[in-house]
Amino acid sequence: MWVNPEEVLLASALWMTERANPYFILQKRKGHGDGGGGLAGLLVGTLDVVLDSSARVAPYRILYQTPDSLVYWTIAHGSSRKEITENWEWLEQNLLQTLSIFENENDITTFVKGKIQGIIAEYNKSHDIREDDDTDKFKEAIAKFHKLFVMPEEEKLVNYYSCSYWKGKVPRQGWLYLSINHLCFYSYLLGKEAKLVIRWADVTQLEKNATLLLPDMVRVSTRCSEHVFSVFLNINETFKLMEQLANIAMRQLLDNKGFEQDRSLPKLKKKSPKKVSALKRDLDARAKSERYRALFRLPKDEKLDGHTDCTLWTPFNKMHILGQMFVSTNYICFTSKEETACSLIIPLREVTIVEKADSCNVLPSPLSISTKNKMTFLFANLKDRDFLVQRISDFLQQTTSKIYFEREITGSLSSSDDEVSSQQGSVLSCSPQRSALSSEGDSDRQFNLNDSRVPTATQALMTMYRRRSPEEFNPKLAKEFLKEQAWKNHFTEYGQGVCMYRTEKTKELVLQGIPENMRGELWLLFSGAINEMATHPGYYEDLVEKSMGKYNLATEEIERDLHRSLPEHPAFQNEMGIAALRRVLTAYAFRNPNIGYCQAMNIVTSVLLLYAKEEEAFWLLVALCERMLPDYYNTRVVGALVDQGVFEELAHVYVPQLYDCMQALSVISTISLSWFLTLFLSVMPFESAVVVVDCFFYEGIKVIFQLALSVLDANIHQLLSCKDDGEAMTILGRYLDSVTNKDSTLPPIPHLHSLLTDNGEPHPEVDIFKLVRSSYEKFGSIRADVIEQMRFKQRLRVIQAIEDTTKRNVVRTIVTETPFSIDELEELYTLFKAEHLTSCYWGSTSNPMSRHDPSLPYLEQYRIDLEQFKVLFALLFPWACGTHTDDLALRVFRLLDHNADALINFREFICGLSVMCHGDLTEKLKFLYKIHVLPDLSLLEEPDSACEAMQYFFEDITPETSSGTAASEKDDGFVGVTFRSEKVKKMQTPDYRMYLRLWNQETKAKLENMKDLPKLNQSQFIELCKTLYNMFSEDPSEQELYHATATVTSLLLEMGEVGKLFCSPAHKTDEEDEDERIAVPSRSKQERHQLEDSSPKDTATSCAMLLSDDDTSVSSYSVLSAGSHELQCEDIAEDTVLIRSGAAAAGHHGRRGGLPHSVSIDKDWAITFEQFLASVLTEQALVQYFEKPVEIAARITNAKNVRKVGHQHMSLSDYEISLSG
Hints:
Elements: E1 2-8, E2 15-20, E3 24-29, H1 38-50, E4 60-64, E5 72-78, H2 81-94, H3 96-99, H4 105-126, H5 136-148, E6 157-167, E7 170-179, E8 182-189, E9 192-199, E10 203-209, E11 217-222, E12 226-230, H6 235-255, H7 278-296, E13 304-314, E14 319-328, E15 331-336, E16 343-347, E17 351-356, E18 367-371, E19 376-380, H8 385-398, H9 402-413, H10 423-426, E20 447-449, E21 455-457, H11 461-464, H12 475-494, H13 504-511, H14 519-527, H15 529-535, H16 539-547, H17 553-561, H18 575-591, H19 601-611, H20 614-628, H21 638-654, H22 656-665, H23 667-677, H24 686-699, H25 702-714, H26 716-720, H27 725-737, E22 739-740, H28 752-756, E23 766-767, H29 768-779, H30 784-814, H31 822-842, H32 848-851, H33 866-876, H34 885-896, H35 906-918, H36 921-933, H37 943-953, H38 961-969, H39 980-988, H40 992-1003, E24 1016-1017, H41 1018-1031, H42 1038-1059, H43 1070-1083, H44 1085-1093, H45 1096-1106, H46 1118-1121, E25 1166-1167, H47 1169-1177, H48 1180-1187, H49 1192-1201, E26 1202-1204, E27 1214-1216, E28 1219-1220
Parallel strand pairs: 9-28, 22-23
Antiparallel strand pairs: 1-5, 2-3, 3-4, 4-5, 6-7, 6-12, 7-8, 8-9, 10-11, 11-12, 13-14, 13-19, 14-15, 15-16, 17-18, 18-19, 20-21, 24-25, 26-27
Helix pairs in contact: 6-30, 14-20, 14-24, 15-20, 16-18, 17-18, 18-19, 18-20, 19-20, 21-22, 21-23, 21-30, 24-25, 25-29, 30-31, 31-33, 31-49, 33-34, 36-41, 41-42, 42-45, 42-47, 42-48
């Protein structure tokens, strides 16, 4: 390929000249090709690898030089002699003559360089190559990566690093290549090559260690091996990228969401590092955006644009605080360098003015931002203020829904601050949905009939059930009033709503307890749910309207749990509270069908509804499920299991003396799920647990960990003396029951957990505020970033454990149905799953989402389509030989695809493989017969015979069909809504699969009978013969088997001709002919017996009687009748035999199962399975071949070391490599 001209000073160093002329030199790298160049070649090869030389991937090059100059220019390089020769010949034909015209050497150099650059530019333009995607250096690395590891172009390289790989006790210096789906290593030292390829999806542990010998070491573990890498130039960057890529793989295993590159990244700057790829920049940007969203609780689709150091003027303490400003599409945020000093979130929807103030020595480069609630923020010391203002202006123009907020904002600002009750409307000035309530007693406004006529509660349920008389006043109410005043003073000083300054003082107020009146609004604010609600007006009402009256599995579970949600609270002892809870849970299940509904969501949601309006409770639930407790509420509660592992790690660090005892009793795993999933709401008295929820919405998951550790620490002595887990659970249960909130103004609500415990001595009361403060004092050092690091480690462990459990369950389910051993089944399942994953990486004809659904039963979770099956068929199935393999794979796939959904599960796959490997002679022959008698459903030219074949096909079905059918008919969304248009379409369009399922149910109970198998017509028989001849192409007894096959086919042809004696006259119409063919199976028993009893000799005599005087009606077996024993494989390759004389050219169409009517195939000709079986039994060679069992172990080993490269349309080039995992 042509390359941009680069200067070379020493042309002969490590290169050998092969061709030369006055202007150009073609060179080959020493050590490349035959002979290897001896010791010098080995040294050169080693240097190329260690120094990352492009000569390793391009060992040929062309240099340009002028006759009188010592400076050379590289203008082309190639990976093969053919490629470089094409470039050389083009130069000789197109440039040499032209260059002789020039007189000045500088002109020649300028011309050549310009010409080469023009060719490259033209190539890039015609191939749509973006110049700014990757640097030339990185493009070389990509080419090297694809060549060394034989990866298709779809496999994207992210980055590569120099390091050492420890193979045994010997380090191998080389290069670590990190791509989206694989970790690869390559080393070449003195002629010894080392390659390693590991799928990220197979990684079970990834850790960074330090020892005396290896201060920087990365250990990568899979299920069956461990790999150590060291001597990194930048180990932190490398390890972070490895973590990120492993995380992407785990996400794919969890919910099948593959990686999609973000094409909207800004262009590279001129001073960017040479080795940074566009993909690496994309992943870096994602990681920064994730940290940014987590820090400020922003919506999950928010992307960070950039950040810069600056100072912020804080009016509450009259200081300029040093920190960082973050700018994204919809927000401007600030956090101080000192973590707890101050943080700030300014939604662009709230911004009214952005202006550059005048610079001065005291305040250089200031920027003023004003908002709708009359707050002004002053930033200074901005490095690139003009550029920043331009970016903010651009984002402001893109911000939508500004008019909506301008119209509604006045309502929340006009509320009176004198009335305590009006706080419900005024805490969040930028929340238009929260208009002030006129008074607490205004309980008749329970529902709001909005535009869509969906009744939703407009008040928090708590306001309707607070039993407080006007004259009632006690110390608790006084304390509550003081708390409210403290918060009002805080709003006055620090601002109110989303844009308020969040400081250590805010945290102190939260730890003292949020007032009942303000709780829901402050939860919205601190969780970030207010932002999603403000930017999605009307979204909840629409969801409620669409989901009303719709039923699926989630709604059934919701109905079952509604009356178990805080049943002790009066708000949920009547239909109004229950209806609100039903609407919120159903709307969320409708919004996120991947989660749908999970137990514990009802408890959390019921508490949210007590303190927040219905729509606000919905958005709080969204924040919880999708951001603050990720993956907690999916079908396998993966997030909670991950945090359980994190909690065990933290317990090991912070309460080591208790850790061993807890592990022995398995207490941590028992308690953590119930504590974490419900945020202590199910294990603590209600009025105490809501204080925990206050802190959780402000600080996040670290509060839950801190509190859990405090509970263990407080009971350490009692727990150490426990003898079993029951005793430990009782101690912890009593302790949590005794946690009280003495400040609560609510009437006492009996705690369900305490009612169920035994009548032992109650634990002394524990004040919730003291417990929370104690948790901060003892365990407040736990950092959010450390928790995220631990979560990554545990996520690998948990997801891989789930995958192993799935594999064990699948194998246990089918091990009794197949002769394969458990180990063989596990290996086959691994290959089956790996093929599914490969198609997710590198594309497939079907959607991976439809083939992997973790919510389905174990056997249905991974399914493969035809293209994937072809790969496994070629590697594992014993009949896969030669060019006929793909055609045979299609036939086998259709037979195994019982529910006709174009996908097969693992049981169906094993069903076919076990017949081919371990079936007896009759089973194998029946399988072979059935794959050819099955008609092509895409060409339904003979519908009646198709029905006949299909009816039999589904009689011999394996036991899982009913579950498979149920799974295929099951929708993962709401039947009436999510897929409404699809369902209507399906009902209107006749679908043969529906009829096949019905036939399947009708015929399932029947016992299999050979005589029920449909007859094989002539075109199907031709295909069967082709399969037989191709099947033996690699067998040691090849010639003997060919002779036997020729004898059998001759015999069967004769039988078919005899069968025509009992068929209808030839002058019948097609329609009558078809009717007659349907009737044949029911009346041909006697005929079949007659055929079976007749000897080949008699049959031949009978056949001779069929020959007419017409030359065109030569019998179809006449081609084989003479000299059939000498027939070779080549004789049948082009379909020129076994077909009547007028149909020779049409054999090609027969590959898909049936031939068009225009081809002169004899419709009356047919054979039965009994005839086929009897004929094969006459030939000992065929009997031995089909009776011979196939050892699957060797095929599994071969399949593990061989991977098909690229798409199905590419060549089947395979390579062997040391694959791990």
